[in-house]
Amino acid sequence: MENKTKVLFESIGKHRTALMGLSMILVFLHHARSEKFGFMPTGFWDDFFMYISLSVDTFLFVSAYGLCYSLKENTIKRFYLNRFKRILPTWWVVLFALHIMGLFVGSKFPDGSFVYPHSIVDMFYWYTGLGYFFNTCFYEWYIPTLLVFYILIPLIYRLSRNGVLLMVLLSVPLVLLYKWSGVLPHLSLSVTRIPIFLLGVLFFKDLEQNKYNLFFVTCLILLVYTLAFSFFWKVPFVVQAAPLLPMGLGLISLFLSHRYTHFIEVCFAFVGTISLEFYLIHGHRRPQYLLSHFISNSTMLVLGAFILCIVLSYLLHLLMKKVNEKILFPNK
Fold this sequence. Notes:
Layout: H1 2-14, H2 16-32, H3 44-51, H4 55-73, H5 76-105, H6 120-128, H7 130-133, H8 142-159, H9 164-181, H10 188-191, H11 194-208, H12 212-232, H13 237-241, H14 245-257, H15 262-273, H16 275-282, H17 286-291, H18 298-328
Helix pairs in contact: 1-14, 2-4, 2-15, 2-16, 4-8, 4-11, 5-8, 5-16, 9-11, 9-12, 16-18
């Protein structure tokens, strides 16, 4: 049992980048559903496109594992510098482009429902991501949430030595308390992701100490725990599914480990390396909006938007890599 569990969970770490790429592809498909652009799957496929929203949680789970690994290998200063280099310059470039387009194109652009920054205060909220938390000028929820998790991960990592399982168990009722209270409802997308992020930390800690079976048992405990809550109170689906996620990721990783699926693993890993850029570019169906002027077929529109996302993401990735190496951090 232990050897099988070990192989199952170790494969997640080996294929972490590929899993991140798969997550981004599924996120794209989930967001591609649009009545405006005529892409509205029905029946089984409608459920499929709805529930693959869990791919966001997959990304957070795998990210928590990777962050813990980075903390183990680097100093705190180097850890934060690496995160800064990877996220903030690219994010600011995209935010600036959206800012300019929003001001000049306005409601004709898909993001027209957002309040674009017009004052110094608005710009501060916009470019720091604080606008999301204060429910004012903001781009979207995911990057600000990710930044908070990244800032807190050294503390979480240290506390996890003394009971991350307890932290995960306690996070479920805290999420429920937040949902029931109705306080700051715009933060629900972030708060409901706390258990899965902490579970990713627990995953790393248990594997680091060769406690494979312990993590498996923990997931079973969490599954019973969340189902018990669901029986009496409404538990967000992302919280219910969190204990099952590592098992599913392990099975996918084993599939990617096969020599016949190596090409698929390489493709997923490529998307994983540009996952940040891909997420930022695909948001709010912007590629579909741009291509809708030239493509009328809804399925071809989604396929074309996906290809456009890949190309633009890769170009942005190369550009920001050069900017970081030549301008922002030439000696780092």
